[in-house]
Amino acid sequence: MHRAETIFNVLVVTDNRTLAASVQEYLAGSRYSAAVCSGRTGIVRAVAEATRKDSVDIVVIDMAMLVSAGRELVRTVRKAEGRPDIVMIGGGDLASLNADEMKKAAHDFVPPELDRGHLLSLLDQAADRRQRIKASQEPDPYRQTSLVDRLTGLYNRSYFRERVEQEISAARRKKGDFSVLLIEIRDLKMINEDLGRHAGDDVLKRVSASLQEHCRGCDTIARCGGDEFGIILSEASVEGAKKIAERILSSFAADRENGDGRPITASIGISSYPRHAEDSEELLRKADHALKASRSAGGNRYALGEN
To answer: Are 65 and 73 in contact (CB under 8 A)?
Structure first.
């Protein structure tokens, strides 16, 4: 018996009728079902409603929409149930928009000269990521066990180490790579002493939310200790990990809600398989060594596990 192919729901966010029609035409007869969300006024609210009403797997955003909607549109998509993947299409009047920065907010980027093959290729990559997540995490028994940190809702150190082992096995089979980030929140003890433990807990919750905003659904985020977090960036090279680290540090620097206006600062250590190590213990040791180097250099930066 022929097995029906999984259909993925795509939401196209654009005011450009030609672009919307092209995307819908390109996806006709494929495994993608496309709906369009348009309108400059209230577009963020409209997207939030669309993703709340229907299950959306991938959101294709016309970057011209970001001129008026900005990062709030991206944040709304990332907070949607199921954390849809984001594919951006360049074009429009981007004079007032930092295009490079917005590209970083997406999983993939399509240049203004829309090409059907390129678009379908990126959608296929996004769909494959979502299928891997579904296969490995649904149902996710770990979320119902002691392998979850109660304060942040993230996985804990035990599951983090288990996932590193699993990623190494997968990377060996595929002859691919992935990266590990260890993140230490600086001055958490001082915040607890000066402002109270509730303030420290609030910082940890905000850090957790920020990390989830800057990572993909296929990545693993864990709280590995009192002030330490870990991230496994699936299929990410050293260069990709560095970009994520920079974005995390920038988001922390902009967060000044500690009650006295102090920003959250952090030290980050990065190690990558197979560049820095080919087994889990060595990979984590290299990341920890890099974390210490970052801390010794004054923090608010990242270091690589080269030694």
So the answer is: yes
Asked if 122 and 10 touch (Cβ cutoff 8 Å), the reply is no
Amino acid at 168: I
The owner of tokens 């820095």 is 276
Spatial separation of the C-alpha atoms in residues 170 and 225, rounded to whole Å: 26
Indicate if 227 belongs to the active site. yes
Beta strands (DSSP E) in the chain are 8-13, 32-37, 58-62, 85-89, 108-110, 155-156, 178-185, 220-223, 228-233, 266-273, 301-304
Among 62, 85, 219, 227, the one annotated catalytic: 227
**SS3 label, residue 301:** strand
Tokens in use for 252? 């922390």
Beta bridge partners of residue 184, listed in sequence order: 228, 267
pLDDT in tens, 217-269: 778 899 998 899 999 998 889 999 999 999 999 888 877 655 556 778 899 99
Instruction: For residue 166, give both structure tokens.
Output: 């699993």
What is the DSSP-derived secondary structure letter of residue 264? P
CB atoms within 10 A of CB 145: 11
Q: CB within 8 A of 169, min separation 6: which ones?
A: none
